[in-house]
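just leaving the lab so this will be short. what follows is a protein written twice so to speak, once as letters and once as structure tokens for the fold. can you read through it and tell me how you think this chain folds. anything you notice is useful, everything is just below:
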Amino acid sequence: MTNYDEYESPLAHRYASREIKKIFSPRERASTWRKLWLWLAEAEQDLGLNQITDKALKGLRSNLIVSDEAFQVIAKEERIRRHDVMSHIFALEKNVPDAAGIVTDNADLIFMRDALRLILPKLAKVIHNLFRFALKFKDLPTLAFTHYQAAQPISLGRRAAQWAQDLAMDLEDIEYVLAGLKFRGAQGTTGSQASFMEIFHGDAAKIDELNKILCGKAGFEACYDISTQTYTRKVDLRIANALSAFGASAIRIATDIRHLAHDKILDEPHEATQTGSSAMAFKSNPMRSERICSLGRKLSTINTNFSATFSSQWLERTLDDSAIRRIDIPEMFLLTDALLILLDDVTNGIVVFPAMIRSQLQQELPFMATENIIMKLVHKGVSRQEAHERIRVLSRETVEAMKTEGAKNDLIERIKKDDFFRPIWDELDGMLDPKLFIGRSAEIVEKYCEGPLRGQLEKYKDYIDSTATATLAV
């Protein structure tokens, strides 16, 4: 049997990076458990627990990385015991008999912390890509859309700045949950620390010191004040909410890009040999943005699983959280990582077509100018009501021709042929400069990008400057 004969998750196999997969790999999980057992044993020995021998510690240190042979023992024992932690302890005892009974529950917090640290700079780099794009095209007029109907123009850079701001909010949220992440530490089977009171003969100060030592070894500032048999699953939910919100942002951006690619306003990067369709050789589809929407759809809703898991916990803990968390915790981070790889590739290589942007604008700009035309006539003493009616009639005739005959927008030509508008004929062409319609778009982009956004990205500058654009595996 080969790997082609068994199911493999496409998320891991096709989309996520090696770095994120390593964090959630079976060897990393099992080896981290052994590190936790070692840290606990070292701390307990430091606090005077004579049962922890130097021999046991030496054995633990020399067996921190779980071997392939140990995994075979673990798999065999779990089939017998139906308990994964006890199976790992049994396998460890095979190599380190003196290490029996050294257990704690903190590994998932370490994995999630390390994964959050991995994805944050990647997100910052995507935002920086949009930062540069927004400034480059800060004053390039483009048609805006509300209700997916033509609306008052903005600049292309202003639209990209909106994408960047959404992702910057996600960056803030993810930074917040990382900053608030704590350790469970040594709390006992139901969070009362009763077993540790027994071990340390009622010396509460030693338990506090034990947890301080453990936090230092694991790299956390403090333990959660209250834990049960586990840390509260509210922690998982808070992280999932932040990552799901990012998933929604990714869909939002990629959907815009897909619409704009349809209009040939811009496009995502394409390789010369990339095939759009097996049947239609001319096609060049926005497959990266489509994939972002596909993966984002799963990430943006994965927090519902964490909400259900948190709300379904009974009293001090039930085990119905276990199986689903084994799936969902790694997957929400692999999904986030995969989306960031795609977004980095897309946002760093967006191709803009200014001629198509101008063409699209010209199809709608005469309508946008009608309010200014009316005001010009009023200033020359013409009745506003009569001017409005004349514009309305000519506009309807123009739209009818565009829809039924495929004609171009010739509203201005119609106005130039109507003697009613003679007082402003000489001014009409000057009223159609697209930059007259984008308001403060360029200023808004500069103010945001060079102000709050640049400051937010400053801490990630070294990573951004030293990291190449992500490449897709497929």
Observations:
- Residues 100-104 have pLDDT under 50 and may be disordered.
